[in-house]
Amino acid sequence: MNYRVGISALLAVSLLGACGNSEDTSKKEESTPKTEVSKDDGTTVVDGIKLKEPAKDEVCAFCNMKAYAKSDDMGAFTAQAVDAKGKNLFFDDAGCMLNYERKHKVTLDKFVRNYDDKSWMKLDDAIVVKGDIKTPMKYGFAYFGTKEAAESFIKEHKEAKIVKASDIDDVAHERFSKMGDMKHDEHKGHDEHEGHDEHGDHDKEHDDNSGH
């Protein structure tokens, strides 16, 4: 009798454990980003967000430079964002995407290309690598879908290393601040030049009147 009770208890524990594992697996599957490619229009859906490919003459929404197509080598660094209205915005480098948010005081759904196959993925899901990497705006960041892929790249590029996504924003913020300083200096110089001209005209008028 005790033997049967013991067997029943073991079976109950096993079943509960199996249910728990099934639930955990289900949760993992639900949390895995879903990517679908539409055969009709070539768009990609990542986590329910519809992404597009840049047009032939697409330019960066922040710096107005060329946003490269997937077929171009530099296309590996093209970034894409979707705003609150569902509009797709393209950027030649991810740093420009972050500065667009900074300039317009908005929060975007941000995506980058997987360096290996140029598929779209969320910036937050990417493994970010910093190195002596030639990118359109010289940010030097590349993005990978797995840590293994990133480490494989690093083996071939000894100076490269895995960094945080916040490191991109640090560089972007620094550049944005410098842009603001340059505009301030230009405006200040323009005002001083106008003031000098006005002062010069006033002195000239004074001299002419004195001559009379």
TrEMBL record:
Residues 21-41, 177-212 are annotated as: Disordered. It comes from the Bacteria. Pfam families: NosL (PF05573). SUPFAM superfamilies: NosL/MerB-like. Residues 24-41 have a biased composition (Basic and acidic residues). PANTHER family: HTH-TYPE TRANSCRIPTIONAL REPRESSOR YCNK. This is NosL. It comes from Kurthia zopfii.
